[in-house]
Design goal:
It is globular and about 45 Å long. The strands form two sheets. It has a four-stranded parallel beta sheet. A two-stranded antiparallel sheet has the order 1-4. The protein is built from nine helices and six strands. By secondary structure, it is an alpha/beta fold.
Length: 225
């Protein structure tokens, strides 16, 4: 089943996570997801399930942003958390991310909601659950994806140095238990969703300028957000 495009792990990440594919939980996950894609409309498309890893090689990873699961509407999900395909209107959370960018680093609000350029600069845009059934939010949760992505985060923490983890909202903040704070940097805030942002828990966190300062202080090139 590894030949299935859903489960093709990019080469640069194989040394870190390929052993997971032989574990019973992942074999069960493979079966479940393969069946879901064969019987239902699911997102993202098969080739984009591991887009976060495809566009952000392990050796270039500098920043990690953790989302929950993919968008479940037509043409939205592209395998990168918070990101949507070209030409798709921006979901509310992404709109608030761009508004914070405007106020934080004076970046003009972009027309495209595709965050692929971030990924290509070393921003790992990782959802905890990598697939979803159309129009059913969270429908692929608790099938094994979270075990896989938790292991990925934990191994990143163990084997890398000076990564910056941006933990937005209660769900993402729980991932701090997987991260060695003596080796890495954690910036946390409320979620960019309107419910959180409108209560004052998102706007003004200045995570984008703060991330670039940490990168510069560690001799790394800043992100062109």
């Amino acid at each position: 089943m590894r030949s299935d495009p859903i489960f093709t792990i990019p080469k640069s990440w194989q040394s870190l996570i390929l052993p997971e594919l032989d574990k019973p939980y992942f074999k069960n996950l493979q079966s479940y997801v393969t069946q879901e894609y064969s019987q239902h409309q699911c997102y993202p498309k098969k080739a984009d399930v591991f887009a976060a890893l495809q566009h952000c090689p392990l050796e270039e990873t500098k920043v990690v942003i953790i989302g929950q699961d993919p968008y479940h509407g037509p043409k939205q999900a592209n395998g990168l958390c918070f990101s949507v395909n070209e030409g798709v209107s921006h979901p509310p959370s992404l709109t608030n991310i761009f508004k914070e960018l405007e106020s934080d680093i004076k970046k003009a609000y972009p027309s495209s909601g595709n965050l692929k350029p971030w990924a290509e600069q070393g921003v790992l845009l990782l959802n905890a659950t990598l697939t979803v059934r159309a129009n059913q939010a969270g429908s692929h949760q608790k099938q094994g994806w979270e075990t896989f992505t938790d292991t990925l985060i934990q191994k990143l923490s163990q084997e890398q140095q000076n990564l910056i983890f941006l933990l937005w909202g209660g769900f993402a903040k729980k991932k701090s238990r997987l991260i060695n704070v003596n080796k890495h940097h954690i910036l946390s805030s409320g979620h960019p969703s309107p419910l959180s942002a409108n209560r004052g828990y998102w706007f003004g966190n200045r995570h984008f300028s703060s991330t670039n300062k940490i990168l510069s202080d560690n001799g790394k090139s800043p992100i062109l957000w």
